[in-house]
Specification:
single chain, 277 residues, alpha+beta, Jelly Rolls, Arc Repressor Mutant, subunit A, 2 domains, eight-stranded antiparallel sheet, 12 helices, globular
Length: 277
């Protein structure tokens, strides 16, 4: 397989809502299945070639489908996407607030769901795809995204306490008590969970699981630690606890993921470098 990719930040006015853009192009991709892992980001993925063949959605209700421009909210279960042949995609890593401010979608309604961008933007979605396809370089394509998203941007209300709670969980890689987090705000745990889920789509306990899982993935990829040491570093009770969480979030054990998924993982795919909300 031969592949190239480019990464860029969005325009300054968008950085409270978008983490970064990625352009990815690959040829002669070995046929197989890629696992879409839970992360702190919502996603907009636009194919400039064949539609994206989603074989398994991150929920048990939604049917598999082929999508040209997919939008997914936060999720705590894996998705499965067919790979093979040639791929050319634009990938927007959205912060949860970006779903409301830019795509005009409810994070709660998109939790563990995948929809076409056209379901949210109507004809403007096809116009965006056409302009991206016509642009000759990744730099120009990212400029197209900036232009479209700045025009789409609408003011939203965000609760400062929820944003603070998200940042605390992110900074500590999910290793903190949800009860303690609530007390730090002056809320009950139940009220924090309600407000957190309404604004971001998942509760703080689920967010903590995702942050901890992200860190485990990065430690395995970057430092190749023993699994027992990864479990300890990430705050799992023990290695079997980490394995159970991994099966729930990635659909396989850590050892299986290392053998079958890690060799195909691109550098940009693992989240965790930003704490924004």
């Amino acid at each position: 397989m031969s592949s190239t990719y480019a990464v860029a930040p969005p325009a300054a006015v968008l950085r409270s809502f978008i983490s970064h853009y990625v352009g990815f192009c690959a040829h002669d991709v070995m046929p197989g299945i890629d696992i879409g892992l839970p992360s702190r980001h919502a996603h907009l993925i636009i194919s400039l070639g064949s539609p994206i063949d989603v074989l398994q959605m991150p929920n048990t209700i939604q049917r598999a489908g082929r999508l040209r421009a997919l939008v997914s909210g936060l999720h705590d279960a894996p998705a499965a996407v067919r790979r093979g042949g040639s791929q050319e995609i634009v990938h927007v890593f959205l912060l949860p607030a970006g779903l409301r401010a830019i795509l005009h979608a409810s994070p709660a309604e998109l939790t563990s769901h995948v929809v076409e961008l056209s379901d949210l933007w109507g004809r403007a979605a096809e116009s965006l795809i056409q302009r991206l396809s016509a642009a000759a370089t990744w730099e120009l394509r990212f400029a197209v995204l900036d232009n479209a998203f700045v025009r789409a941007l609408v003011p939203i209300q965000r609760h400062a306490a929820v944003a603070w709670a998200w940042r605390q969980l992110a900074a500590r890689h999910g290793r903190m008590s949800i009860g303690g987090l609530a007390r730090g705000i002056g809320w009950t745990r139940q009220h924090l969970t309600h407000r957190f889920r309404a604004e971001l789509g998942v509760g703080p306990k689920t967010a903590a699981r995702i942050f901890r899982f992200e860190r485990a993935c990065r430690l395995i990829r970057d430092r190749r630690l023993r699994l027992v040491d990864v479990a300890a570093a990430c705050g799992y009770h023990d290695q079997p606890h980490m394995t159970r969480e991994w099966i729930a979030l990635a659909g396989c054990t850590p050892r299986t993921w290392i053998a079958t998924e890690l060799p195909f993982l691109q550098d940009y795919e693992l989240s965790g470098g930003d704490h924004g909300e």
